[in-house]
Amino acid sequence: MKHADFGKALFYVSLALVATVAVFAVFFVQQTYRELANLQQRQDHYARQLERAEEELAYRENYHRHLLENPEFVERVVRQKLGYARPGELLFRFEQRD
């Protein structure tokens, strides 16, 4: 009879050990999943930042190319940004009110 009690006890100890290992495995898998989700969010954020930076670079390269190759564009930029005018032109400047 003692042999049967020992077998039952061993079965329950083994069952408890398996259940404990399963709980820890679920905990670690859940933690790893949270870390993966966090890394994916960061990757998406950095991908959007990279996309915006590439768009800005393309815009600036296009602007620079126009400054080098297009005299009409240069004239327009100088007139708008620096307020230059041709001889005999009259410029009107208005104050912006907030």
Task: Give a description of the structure.
- It is a single chain.
- 82% of the residues lie in helices and 0% in strands.
- The protein has helices spanning 2-69, 71-82.
- The protein has one domain.
Number of DSSP strands?
Answer: 0
Helix-strand pattern? HH
Structurally, the number of domains stands at: 1
Question: What is the rounded distance between the termini?
Answer: 95 Å
Number of discrete helical segments: 2
Q: What share of the residues does DSSP label as strand, in percent?
A: under 5%
Q: Which percent range fits the helix content? A: over 70%
Major sheet attributes: none
Q: Structural class, please? A: mainly alpha
Shape: rod-shaped
Low-pLDDT windows of residues:
none
Rg (CA only): 36 Å
Overall average residue pLDDT: 90
In short:
This protein is 82% helix and 0% strand. By secondary structure, it is mainly α. It has one domain (2-82).
Which descriptors apply to this entry?
mainly alpha, 0% strand
Question: What layout of secondary structure does this protein have?
Answer:
Layout: H1 2-69, H2 71-82
